[in-house]
Amino acid sequence: MDEFMRATIDEAIQGLSEGGIPIGSVIVHNNKIIGRGHNRRIQKGNPILHGEMDAFENAGRQPARVYRESTLYTTLSPCPMCSGAILLYGIKKVVIGENRTFMGDEELLKSRGVELTILQNEECIKLMEQFIAANPVLWNEDIGE
Prior knowledge:
By secondary structure, this protein is an alpha/beta fold. Helix content is about 45%, strand content about 20%.
């Protein structure tokens, strides 16, 4: 496993340890992490603070070209909101830990020319399966069911 997916999983584990949903994300530019984050919706009571959104917030203001040259890593397939942010900021490559427990808006991303790599990483799958089984109400709240 590469260091960036490891950092993404570490973010998810940190979120879980805080009582949140175990989804992590990092944004990588020129082989360096410029933003990292994890789903903090529960911790902060903020409905838009998904892992990818937290990583964007922590990356801060960047020139448009920096985001266009970056790769976003996420433990889980990006939801429609996070996919919109990926498109808005021109991210061209997304590495997804897994999409078995949740299929995000991958078709939209592909249709707009975003290159997706889906790893089906067992650690990512296990984190989400265990969380969903233990916390179905929190999970369904987050995905709008």
